[in-house]
## 1
Amino acid sequence: MKNRTYLLLLLILWIPLGLRARTVKVWEGTPVRAASVTLTEYLPEGEPLAAVVVCPGGSYFWLDKEGEGSLVGEWLASQGIAAYVLHYRTGGWFHFTFHTRALFGGNRHPDMISDLQRALQLVRAQYDGPVGAMGFSAGGHLVMSAGEFFGTDFTGLGLDTSLRPDFVAPIYPVVSMREPCTHARSRRGLLGDGRTGQQALRDSLSLECHVRPDTPPVFLLCCDDDPVVDPRNSDLLDAALTEKGVLHRYVRYHAGGHGFGSDREKFTAETARWQAAFLDWLKEIDYGH
């Protein structure tokens, strides 16, 4: 009951009209000590068609807060979709540089998915329509994790709110934590220093192994020339989704690289079409115009 009261007060403070982009600390009023985790809202004109929690990438060590964050939020809002950009916990530059989490702890799994599940709770508390999640690179791994592991409440709050996104959009995602195609930096960022050699932990977070028949619809995108995350990650996920009969669309471009997000200056002739492809797909699953 105490958690529900804090949530209600938080939403009352969040909802006032007149602001286009509002930011809240998602763990405020809870026992979780994570003041850096924020959710920024980008609202469209009129009633939203859907809501999307946006998870920027950054190898689970940092976040691309503009190209895969604020610019995505602004674009979605311009298309009639309420966007909520999540700044979730990451390993951080210090731990990336000095490999110190094995000694001093720090952010690592399940902190990241806990933050996303909390964001889904908050958005669902104020919006009755479909709520999806879109993520880029490591953020793609995060949103796909939410689409597979929704049966486990990583928040620890025990709220009676669905943790299953209505759809997920992993864009050039990290998928596997196993060789030969894992993105080693993201694996280290997620698992934590000193844990990357734990095979059971690697397997538990290799998403190609955990697709379930009730996984929400998936919009999956990558590029053949991605120099950062091996496109075989997306191939593995596509194959697993197909095997389980999960509704999905796999878009694969020849040229586009990695990290373009919604930064039009980084688009190629092909990747300039990805946003329209996503919106068309939303229509096909009855969440678009």
## 2
Amino acid sequence: MGRPRADDYGEKQQLILDQAAVLFADKGFAGTSMATIAQFCHTSKALIYHYYTSKEALLFDMLQSHVQLLLKTANEVLQKDTEPEIRLRALLRSFMEIYVSSHAKHVVLLNDLHWLPSDQQSLIRDTERGVIKIFRDLVAEIRPDLNEPTRTGLAMSLLGSINWTYIWFDKNGTLSPQHFADLAASLFFSGAKSITDFR
């Protein structure tokens, strides 16, 4: 019979994920050892291995949980009974909040996914494609007259405007995540009104 999990198992596992994300974002996945993670978490390397059999297993859990949160959030916004413009603004606000609160994990997703085995990369990219589809579906509701390549371009441009904010956005600055999300939405709506199909 297996040893029962401690009541705080999930809490400790989340702490390891959060702390490892900070290290990966700062030093890179290749530049961070399990021993360094253990030291940063003020625990033993043996305890880290109790939760994760390898550094790759830790990275996969970190990234998979992050993209699943994005997809879950996007689905929740999509299902609201409001105008597509309102849902898109809400989606941008929700994503900016996640990007700021999970800054390190987002950095790792953009920079270190390639360290995972190809099958695990595919699982994460499949989830990312689900997120992209939701953006594309909202754009399609807003501009149903445009062809699919043009709508895809608009959706990817909008996603790009928030995905790379980790490079410059200061969560302690005067511009809040919500204000920037609204700014990105306003720029999108202003531009989307004048877009015609590219052939």
## 3
Amino acid sequence: MEKRVYNFNAGPAVLPEDVLKQAQKDFMIYPGAGMSVMEMSHRSKEFDKIINEAKADLKTLLEIPDNYHILFLQGGATLQFSMVPLNLMPPANKADYIVTGSWSKKAVKEAKRVGSVNIAASTEDDSFTRIPKQDELKLDPEASYVHFTSNNTIFGTEFKTEPEVGNVPLVCDTSSDMLHKKIDVSKYALIYAGAQKNMGPSGVTLVIIRNDMLSRSSDELHTYLNYTTHTAKASLYNTPNTWGIYMIGLVYKWLLNNGGLDAMYKRNLEKAGILYDAIDNSDGYYRGTVNKEDRSLMNVTFRMPNEDLEKKFIAEAAENGFVGVKGHRSVGGLRASIYNAFPVEGVNAFVDFMDKFKKNN
């Protein structure tokens, strides 16, 4: 049997092996259905059980209050860059955006098509190597909402706590660190996340929206772009990604069976600590690219003395079973994405490889 590699890809990304084995077991015949999940009707009682269990397990994991809807949509976080302002920016037609990387810049681009965007803070002048401090935020108390991106896959930065925004509704793109720890959902008006980084396969977008936000959605909006369409139909307005939702549900159960989000956060701190310690104690051979206090637990970015060494490192890493360590094409360098499903033994093995590579080069 072919051996699995250690998968450092930023997304689509590593999935828990227990989840993959369960999916393999159910692939041909889902228990009680006589067919695969990919074949069953999204209106069937079997799929109704799958999607409702996924919602219930997520509600348990995050302790989501009753005044929120959980939606499983399509179009990725990219579609949410448009849906958020289309639904939530009226009637004031202005919003605050905190810009900390490429994805928040793309969110700003779409929001500007709807109304006025105030850049409450940006770290672009610092090459997105840090998260802005609270006292840097220039917030508009009359903004329709404040938008931020919790974790930046390309640059390797992460908000450790939510920005304080007063009474203005808080919106967050949590695509690349969703469920890496427990968050207080009650602080947010809307949370969205593409599944393919830390929650499941590509093709599903999670949206958690507070009920009072739905009154902002105009009847004039195109039907699919209106959040009320999807809350009214419980994510079944159109045919959803049935297999993706099934897989996400398995990931939620895997998290619950492994101690929940507090246990996962402890594990993520351990994994990131091992890798960042190896970088920091390499006498400059490996160099972290962001401020230490803003380092991501999910995406570890670093550089080496020169690009030739980096290319050699990437090639030899792949030969040794470490795949996906090349940095994003827009910034270069190296990146190790160590999401929830990435095993601690894989981090230890990678650190050993880093040490050997340094000695040999």
